[in-house]
Amino acid sequence: MTAEQETFKRFLEWSFEDHAEDIIRTIVWLNSHMVKIRREYPKEYLAYKALSNQELNQVICEVLLPF
C-alpha cells in the first residue's frame, strides 16, 4: 500500500471504530463531513483526495478483511 493509502487507512479505521464497526455509517459520515475533515484532518483529507477508486477500494477491503 502507498503512503497515502496507509494514512487514509488509519483515519478510516478510527472512523470505523467510532461508528460501532458499521461501514455504511462510516462511509456516510465521511461523505457528509468532507468540509470538517478537510479543515480538521488536512493530512488525511489530502491522502484521500490523492487515491484512485481502486486504491480506495483496497483500503476499505483491508479495513474489513478481519470481519
Structure notes:
The chain has 67 residues and is mainly α. Helix content is 81%, strand content 0%. The protein is built from 5 helices and no strands. The longest helix has 16 residues, at 3-18. The mean pLDDT is 96.
Topology:
Elements: H1 3-18, H2 23-32, H3 34-40, H4 42-50, H5 53-64
Helix pairs in contact: 1-2, 1-4, 1-5, 3-4
Q: What is shown here, in short?
A:
The protein has 5 helices and no strands. It is an all-alpha fold and 67 residues long. The protein has one domain.
**Overall pLDDT, averaged?**
96
How many angstroms does the end-to-end distance come to?
Answer: 20 Å
Domains, number:
1
Shape field: globular
Helix content: over 70%
Point out poorly predicted stretches. Answer: none
What value does the Rg take, in angstroms? 11 Å
Number of strands: 0
- Count of DSSP H/I helices: 5
Order of helices and strands: HHHHH
Strand content: under 5%
> Pairing-aware structural class of the strands and helices?
mainly alpha
**How would a crystallographer describe the biggest sheet?**
none
Keywords: Plasmid
